Amino acid sequence: MRAIEVTEFGGPEVLQLSEVEDPIPLPGLEVLTVSGAGVNYADTHAVENSYLAAQELPFIPGAEVVGTLPDGRRLCGFTASGGGGYAERALVAPAMCFEVPDSMSDAAALSLLVQGLTAWHLLRTSARLQDGESIVVHAAAGGVGNLAVQLARQWGAGRIIAVASTEEKRAQALAAGADVVIDSTAPDLAATIRQANDGKRVDIVLEMVGGTTTDASLAVLAPFGRLVVYGMASRTPATPIPPASLMVGSHSVIGFWLVDCLRSDPVRRVAEPLRELVGLVVSGALVPLEGPSYPLAEAAQAHRDLRERRTFGKVSLTVP
Ligand SMILES: NC(=O)c1ccc[n+]([C@@H]2O[C@H](COP(=O)([O-])OP(=O)(O)OC[C@H]3O[C@@H](n4cnc5c(N)ncnc54)[C@H](OP(=O)(O)O)[C@@H]3O)[C@@H](O)[C@H]2O)c1
Question: How many domains does the chain have?
Answer without folding.
Answer: 2
